[in-house]
């Protein structure tokens, strides 16, 4: 797996999004996910106080407590849900139903996210949340501390000063901002920008900013098997359309290629699916060294976008403005839940 740097530390270009980690009865399954991620070479983990019904940090800290070869990003701004233990138990009981009905699962997850307190950016709230995250993660330092989906008015001079102080004290390696929306919606802060991936034109040179992309696997549905043109284009891109891992492999390869030097998050509740998806990445294409791959994959996404009802609400892909990474001067050193 290709490597990059985050806050001055080497890490994997694929990160694991921890929004599906849960505690309680679901702890053993969550532990297996983390162990699988480490086994396949993932060394970056993205978490937040609100993830996993408020228990994801606990589980991650339990598994990675003695592992100093990983990087961790956590967040401030959205609080932990109330009664996490009861909610985790309810999720475990309802898991078969939620697995069979993805729409219901997404709706309930959205409601749980809205139920947590938001815009928690007062100095005392930031310091309390961060201290609790360190305790749960069993660490004295976090590699990246991000604002969790802030609004424009949240970024005050006081908040900037608090965040800068955490870096100066050595408790945070870097600070930044995250959004569930596209790159243009990031509230600029610090050296880490986390956003939902889309095949939009690369921005002007942004030296020193670590880009972390998420959300692509949920946003772009696999082409239908009877769409022979899309199937042929997948094959032309080097991915076997008969292979169930081909689509996530293609998307992850494309996201990596269009985020040069950056990280891409993936999340899964199935260790084997996680392994298969990461194994399917074409690292030559992901590095931008496979001629025609990016342009061909963009054309394929455009076709999927226009043919799939579930993608109809996506913004148009402007293929004429797309800049291939090999021609870009962008320099970057690097998913509610902000994940693939």
| Gross geometry | globular
Number of beta-strand segments: 10
What summary fits the major beta sheet? 8 strands, parallel, barrel
According to CATH, the fold-level topology is TIM Barrel
The helix-and-strand class reads: alpha/beta
- CATH top level? Alpha Beta
Radius of gyration: 19 Å
**What is the CATH superfamily classification?**
NADP-dependent oxidoreductase domain
Q: Quote the beta fraction.
A: 15-25%
Distance between the termini: 17 Å
- How many domain modules? 1
Strand order of the largest sheet: 3-4-5-6-7-8-9-10
* Distinct helical segment count: 12
Architecture in CATH? Alpha-Beta Barrel
The unreliable regions are 319-336
- Helix share, percent: 25-40%
Oligomer: single chain
Order of helices and strands: EEEHEHEHHHEHEEEHHHEHHH
Mean pLDDT across residues: 85
Task: Describe the protein in words.
With 340 residues, the chain is α/β, with parallel strands linked by helices. The chain has a single domain (3-327), classed as TIM Barrel (Alpha-Beta Barrel). The protein is 39% helix and 16% strand. The protein has helices spanning 27-39, 56-64, 84-100, 102-115, 123-137, 157-168, 216-219, 228-236, 246-257, 271-279, 283-286, 293-307, and strands at residues 3-6, 9-12, 14-17, 44-46, 71-76, 142-148, 172-182, 192-196, 210-214, 263-266. Strand 3, helix 1 (27-39) and strand 4 (44-46) form a beta-alpha-beta unit. It is globular, with a radius of gyration of 19 Å.
